[in-house]
Design a protein that fits this description.
The protein is mainly α and 192 residues long. The protein contains three helices and four strands, in the order H-H-E-E-E-E-H. It has a two-stranded antiparallel sheet. It has a two-stranded antiparallel sheet with strand order 2-3.
């Protein structure tokens, strides 16, 4: 549960203003009671003050809680849960809208989206990329989402091992060049 300090501060200020206004109204009723000598004026003003206080508290509750309260005067909070990933980012439906979750066991229509061009995307970490202008617009993809399955690697093992061997040979050749230049420098320094 998150606590919005600014919202609580506003509610406190509203309650203080309401309390001050009700104090002024009470003082006015007290002055009326002393100045006007009527037999039923005291109880009538007390009832009027009580009704005004209840109406003011009800109005403050409506203002603070977006206007809806139940029979007990508690605010009605409508909660809508939307599907998100582990980092709190929303997952979109096949149509591109947010997916509301009513039943956790229900299979949800998770959308698959694609770009026509992947060149130049900025890697944001893990498997997230930030598109740039040349990637074009996002469009609905044709892939299929399979729950509980792992995607195979797109790397070809024979190509990757060939690249490792090439890198080892290039490193060995570069090391040989450095050793040869070091030997030449030693010979030249020995001739002096």
């Amino acid at each position: 549960m998150t606590v919005d300090v600014a919202q609580q501060g506003r509610a406190l200020c509203q309650a203080l203003l309401l309390g001050g206004a009700m104090g002024v109204v009470y003082d006015l009723f007290r002055v009326l009671r002393v100045r006007v000598k009527a037999p039923l004026l005291g109880p009538l003003l007390d009832l009027l003050f009580w009704l005004a206080a209840v109406a003011a508290l009800f109005a403050l509750t409506l203002l603070r809680d977006s206007g809806e309260v139940d029979e007990a005067g508690e605010p009605i909070l409508e909660k809508v849960y939307c599907l998100s990933d582990g980092n709190g980012r929303f997952v979109l439906s096949r149509e591109g809208g947010l997916i509301e979750v009513d039943d956790p066991q229900e299979t949800l229509p998770i959308g698959i989206f694609d770009y026509g061009n992947y060149d130049g995307m900025t890697k944001l970490g893990e498997n997230r990329f930030l598109p740039i202008e040349k990637n074009g617009n996002l469009w609905i993809g044709t892939g299929k989402l399979v729950q509980g399955a792992l995607e195979l690697s797109n790397a070809d093992l024979s190509d990757e091992l060939t690249k490792v061997i090439e890198a080892q040979r290039a490193y060995g050749l570069a090391l040989k060049v450095v050793q040869t230049s070091d030997e030449i420098e030693t010979v030249i320094n020995g001739l002096r």
